[in-house]
Specification:
heterodimer; A: 833 residues; alpha+beta; 5-stranded antiparallel β-sheet; 4-stranded antiparallel β-sheet; 33 helices; 13 strands; B: 426 residues; alpha/beta; 7-stranded mixed β-sheet; 12 helices; globular
Chain lengths: 833, 426
């Protein structure tokens, strides 16, 4: 039974066959014992019983192998046998085992055979498939090309969702273009250009003041009207509350938002009330020792109700409040039409249901009311509850302000001509055309040809002929550039010239920044120096040290570890309140990102992914893990781990949450995830007629019992003996990564298991030691993903020698993650078409 | 590959109407858009994320004398207007990750390379309608949901059709006329975009010359996208000149999908009645919340009922609400006369109701709950198809029947290779 190779995409074979039509099949090398003398007897003795004429377990049949690699199927088979022997996965533990000496000699023979085969193949990888920018690359590219502030502007929001292959969102083959998408490109390009170019004249600064009339939302307004006459805004809930009351404080008198994109200064007089309250701490769930944090998020009345969650609501600023009334000033970016809304980052949770709980448990503190309904309970809670709350008494908004005028975007488009344009409303034809040429070159990430400029220029002229102003016609030209395939598709290899220096610069910058190359990369490409290994390595260092590398960390983690799906199955609100109250969702994402950033910054060994003695936690996440942390508020600190349960990816809540469904955990799902993404050996899909496992939580059985039954079926056991054990090791982690020792209902958790090799482990800490023993396999899986992510194509069997070479080189260094990235960038598959 | 020329485009600009373009079959049909046909066929597909609780959905008996189950009871007045099909599915696996195949028969990841490219049955029908209606189709409902949600409508290129989110947006699309200035602007935008397409086609042609065969094939997607947009622009231009129908109701407000279902069904009925579209798809996922029905536990949590009786009861309440709204929709369709015929809108509209999820508790995608109502089929039965794995009938056979009824000349759709045996016309 083998795991990986039947997954190789069919087109890889097709390409290989095309590339080698006339090649004579390669015989095993002459030196060393031949296939017939060592491998054949070995196969007959240990393998053919299950993988022969009679049975073909796992769809593998070895009795007809000749030791010659005649096609890709035989290459797949030999590589498979070799991998399984290297890992001691096969023969299965219950079967007769070969001696170490037998194993060794077969491994040697097969290794040589496969190496020799690869050596004969010069172009051992396929031409990269032309690929378009995916949504996030489009967004970042627009940002960098036009110097737009993207805090609340997402030009790709209306694009059809990108399809992925094995969770990767950079694979050219999968990134399709459709009429619907092109229509969006056309619409959005126009919007983007307008945003970057206008207004030419710097808008006047205005000021708005709000001192009363702070209505918030119908549910609480009726109480506030009598209680405080709307003289201040009051915030109760956190934004994660289910049916929020006082979670978003909007300024309804400012619902239309600001008139222009720009920075605005927001001054507010606020106080933090009842931080130290006399309820039990766990009853309210706020932290009396921590200052209240006021957050300002953006809102847009056209996107939905201002007192509720909206699709676009970036956190613009956060302020720690003193308890007493004080003035605070923050400077935030707001797009035209957006209005600031005020939130309570570490506030209460679900006050709507708290009103009733207060009445029930602290009834003696409140005056008697007519009913026990929510309305009367809320009146009591607000007027007599003395609950933790933020009050805002006055708000002043002033702006727009700009760091520079013309804006960076205007300067990048018009250069020194801007002043003349602003004065005269037009430029000379030569100037217009020069500006167009420069913009096209920046957008296409390479020098442009005269014909290319001609085509766009034609549009500009025809628009002028139909009565448009010169500037408006010029903008139409810019719009056209943003719809050209030269902008939308990454430069592909010229069929004669291969990958150009500019193409390489783009490949590098989309790998590490998910965006276009900057000036320095462009210059190196223009001088033809970029291809030198030293230069490349230096650029990798520079780029990884840049903030834009966050795009790599996020994009790659989303693709490799499926973190993109975190939050797609929201955890049960009743069972996992803390997830919503303390925004653990963002915290767990942040933990993994900071962890990976540390590996890159310090060039720490990739073994840390498997097991590590540190991680990054904020206070609430530390609590979630049961770890004492000195961090306060939302600040993340590097924390040294003293026990082995949490270290490495498998102890991180992000991973444990994304591999559960928000309700319960399944060792199968986590096991498959681990085989796919950590070990790079995805199991075959289940056979067609298999009975699914129907979860039954009424009593008798645990998932472990059910799986045990499942594994007793031979055809299930073939895969589940590999899938289930890693999943069992993680069973101590609940669906949001909290530690548990029982399933409830008195059923304890058993996280021990036995790998298919027979190695046993008693818990997750133990299991991680077994993983570390397979670190080469992990390194190969990680490297394969990095190569695929960075080169935008599937990484197939023919890339195997390059992957192995990277890992050999890496092992000779300190296995640092930064080193690995450099090795990938300087590898053949990355540098070639 | 057709090489586009600038001249052809300037003709479009000059003539406004675009009868001479070789690839614009639907544009030609658009020219007749104001002349209604005798008996148009219509199709509505409704799907949810978590299916229907099997124990409370499937009747024990088959044939026409079956007893209505708790989840079918709301449909009692329509018992002769719908058929229930058991043991139909696509043979897909993947739980939530496979429900997006409900109307396509394949998972999106596996759709590329297939002849239909993973197109959904509603979009196949929409292609057939082309420009004969203002909207070739209307996909409505939840943009997202658990693991992406329903994601029911897919185009030929394997991209998803983003749904119109709520009644307010749907109302505006159907009935609210753009201002004269808005129309002029729209027309100018069409001209601009048309000339941009010319320029970028030039870029694409020169790019293509440098590419390897592989890459050039990939670029074909871009060329065909350009053609699609050209077609669309031509149609948009047509429809700009034909006024939208008068709104028979006031503009609704959005209250969240659960409470919006009645308004959405009403608007779909109006869209069909006014022949604004003949194909509508409703996706019930994100935004459909049990709390709006006064149920504390979450819908998804309840669908993992773990066979706990109380959870199942609540789940059935939620699902029953969906069936009730669907039954109301059938009432509405039956109350509207189909112009130029003796029948009602229900007779000319085939309405599919179901899910890509078979049993949410075990996350299985087999034995999908499938109801087909109206459309001129002979109804009134619970039809059972073979259960044995080697004799199963693909659900796509039903889609072939629906497409044929719609007027599409095909005997294939995705995994379907023939019409569904046993399903007859009236």
């Amino acid at each position: 039974m083998a795991l990986s190779s039947k997954r190789i995409p069919a087109f890889v074979f097709a390409v290989l066959l095309l590339a080698w039509p006339a090649e004579r099949p390669l015989a095993a090398a002459d030196a060393a014992p031949s296939f017939e003398t060592v491998v054949r007897p070995f196969l007959n003795k240990y393998c053919v019983g299950c993988h022969g004429q009679k049975h073909q377990k796992g769809d593998r049949r070895f009795d007809r192998l000749t030791g010659e690699i005649v096609d890709d199927n035989s290459l797949v088979d030999l590589q498979d046998i070799l991998d399984q022997l290297n890992l001691s996965e096969m023969p299965p533990e219950e079967a007769t085992q070969p001696t170490d000496a037998e194993r060794r000699v077969v491994i040697q023979r097969l290794t040589t055979t496969i190496q020799d085969y690869h050596k004969t193949r010069e172009a051992s990888h396929q031409a990269a498939v032309l690929r378009r920018l995916n949504s996030r690359e489009y967004r970042n590219t627009v940002r960098d090309l036009l110097h737009l502030n993207m805090t609340m502007f997402d030009p790709a929001a209306t694009f059809p969702r990108d399809q992925t292959t094995e969770h990767l969102d950079t694979i050219g083959d999968t990134l399709v273009t459709s009429g619907a998408l092109l229509q969006q490109y056309l619409n959005v390009a126009e919007e983007v250009v307008q945003k970057a170019v206008f207004p030419l004249e710097k808008p006047d600064v205005q000021k708005w003041t709000f001192r009363d009339g702070f209505r918030q939302q119908p549910e609480i307004d009726q109480v506030h009207r009598t209680f405080n006459g709307f003289r201040h805004m009051t915030l109760y809930d956190v934004v994660g509350a289910d049916k929020p009351e006082g979670a978003y404080g909007p300024i309804h008198a400012f619902a239309d938002g600001v008139p222009h994109d720009g920075y605005y200064e927001i001054k507010l007089k606020a106080e933090a009330l009842n931080r130290r309250h006399d309820y039990p701490i766990e009853f309210l769930g706020t932290d009396p020792d921590e200052p209240f944090r006021l957050g300002i998020v953006a809102g847009n009345k056209d996107a939905g109700t201002l007192h509720l969650t909206q699709p676009v609501e970036p956190l613009l600023a956060e302020v720690e409040l003193a308890d007493e009334q004080k003035w605070y000033t923050v400077r935030v970016w707001l797009d035209a039409g957006f209005t600031p809304r005020f939130t309570f980052r570490n506030g209460l949770m679900d006050v709507r249901s708290l009103w009733g709980k207060l009445a029930k448990e602290y009834g003696d503190r409140f005056p008697k009311r007519k009913t026990k309904g929510i309305v009367d309970n809320r009146i009591n809670g607000i007027t007599h509850g003395n609950l933790p709350q933020i009050r805002i008494h006055e708000i002043e908004i002033e702006g727009p302000f700009y760091d520079e005028w013309p804006t960076a975007g205007q300067r990048s488009i018009f250069g020194d001509d801007f002043e003349e344009l602003a004065r005269a409303d037009t430029l000379s034809k030569a100037q217009w055309r020069d500006r167009l040429t420069e913009f096209a070159s920046a957008a296409y990430r390479r020098p442009v040809s005269t014909e290319e400029v001609d085509r766009v220029w034609k549009i500009v002229e025809s628009r002028r002929d139909t009565g448009r102003s010169p500037l408006s016609a010029f903008c139409d030209g810019l719009t056209a550039i943003l719809c050209s395939p030269a902008f939308l598709y990454l430069e592909s290899a010229d069929q004669k010239e291969g990958l150009s220096s500019h193409g390489l610069a783009s490949r590098l910058s989309y790998f590490l920044w998910s965006s276009m190359p900057d000036q320095e990369l462009r210059e190196l490409a223009a001088r033809g120096e970029l291809r030198q290994s030293k230069v490349l390595a230096a650029q990798v260092d520079r780029m990884l040290n840049d903030d834009r590398a966050d795009a790599f960390i996020e994009g790659f983690l989303d693709s490799w570890l499926t973190l993109r799906d975190l939050g797609a199955t929201p955890p049960d609100r009743n069972a996992f309140r803390s997830f919503y109250h303390y925004d653990l969702d963002s915290a767990m994402r942040q933990e993994t990102r900071l962890f990976v950033r540390e590996l890159i910054q310090q060039n720490l060994s990739i073994d840390n992914f498997l097991d590590s003695d540190f991680t990054f936690l904020n206070k609430r996440l530390a609590e979630h893990y049961g770890i004492v942390s000195s961090s306060t508020g939302n600040e993340f600190q590097k924390v040294l781990l003293t026990d082995r349960r949490r270290g490495g990816l498998l102890g991180q809540a992000s991973i444990l949450t994304v591999t559960a469904n928000g309700i319960d955990t399944s060792p199968v799902v986590r096991g498959v995830w681990l085989l796919e993404n950590i070990l790079g050996t995805p199991p075959s899909p289940p056979p067609p007629d298999v009975e699914p496992i129907d979860p039954d939580v009424r009593g008798a059985t645990t998932i472990r019992d059910q799986l045990e039954k499942h594994r007793r079926i031979a055809s299930c056991n073939d895969c589940h003996r590999k899938i289930d054990p890693p999943g069992f090791a993680l069973e101590n982690f609940d669906p949001i990564g909290g530690w548990r020792t029982s399933y409830g209902r008195g059923k304890p958790i058993d996280s021990s298991g036995q790998l298919s090799t027979g190695q046993e482990f008693k818990d997750v800490a133990d299991f991680k030691l077994l993983l570390l023993a397979r670190k080469d396999q992990f390194a190969r899986a990680l490297t394969t993903k990095l190569l695929a992510y960075s080169s935008g194509r599937h990484v197939g069997l023919s890339d195997r020698p390059h992957v192995d070479e990277i890992i050999n080189n890496l092992n000779q260094q300190r296995s640092g993650f930064r080193d690995l990235i450099k090795l990938v960038v300087t590898s053949d598959p990355f540098l070639s078409p | 590959m057709i090489i586009h020329s600038a001249d052809r485009r300037s003709f479009l600009k000059a003539a406004g109407v675009c009868l001479a373009l070789p690839t614009l079959e639907s544009a030609r049909q658009a020219a007749r858009a104001d002349r209604p046909e005798a008996s148009p066929r219509r199709m509505v597909c409704v799907g949810n994320e978590f299916g229907m609780h099997p124990g409370n959905f499937w009747p024990k008996q088959t044939g026409s004398d079956y007893e209505l189950t708790p989840l079918l009871e709301p449909l009692a007045p329509h018992k002769n207007n719908f058929t229930l099909f058991s043991h139909l599915d696509h043979g897909l696996k993947g739980g939530h990750f496979a429900i997006h195949g409900f109307l396509t028969g394949v998972k999106a990841a596996e759709a590329r390379g297939l002849p239909g490219g993973g197109m959904s049955v509603d979009q196949r029908a929409a292609e057939f309608v082309g420009s004969r209606t203002r909207f070739p189709s209307l996909t409505i409902g939840s943009e997202y949901g658990l693991h992406g949600g329903c994601q029911m409508s897919w185009t030929r290129t394997g991209t998803r059709v983003p749904p119109i989110p709520g009644p307010r947006e749907l109302f505006r699309q159907l009935f609210v006329e753009d201002s004269a200035a808005g129309k002029k602007q729209a027309e100018e935008r069409i001209h601009l975009q048309a000339s941009i397409l010319d320029a970028v086609l030039g870029d694409a042609n020169s790019l293509k010359r440098t590419l390897s065969r592989n890459d050039a094939q990939k670029l074909d997607e871009y060329f065909s996208s350009v053609r699609d947009v050209e077609t669309k622009l031509t149609l948009d231009q047509q429809w700009l000149r034909i006024p939208k129908p008068k709104a028979p109701i006031d503009e609704p407000t959005n209250k969240g999908l659960t409470l919006d279902l009645p308004a959405l069904y009403e608007l779909i009925a109006l869209a069909l009645q006014t022949d604004s579209t003949r194909v509508a798809t409703l996706e019930i996922a994100e935004g459909f919340v049990s709390s709006a029905l006064g149920i504390k536990q979450g819908y998804h949590g309840l669908s993992h009922h773990g066979k706990v009786k109380e959870s199942i009861e609540l789940l059935v309440q939620i699902e029953r609400y969906q069936v009730e709204q669907f039954a109301g929709f059938l009432d509405r369709l039956r109350s509207i006369r189909e112009p130029n015929s003796d029948g009602t809108l229900l007779d000319s509209t085939m309405v599919l109701f179901g899910s890509g999820m078979g049993d949410a508790n075990s996350h299985t995608n087999n034995d999908l709950p499938i109801i087909l109502a109206g459309g001129g089929f002979r109804h009134g039965e619970h039809k059972e198809y073979p259960k044995a794995s080697n004799r199963r009938v693909p659900l796509c056979n039903l889609f072939v029947s629906m497409l044929q009824r719609f007027g599409v000349e095909t005997d294939q759709f995705s995994q379907g290779t023939t019409t569904l045996t046993g399903l007859e016309l009236v």
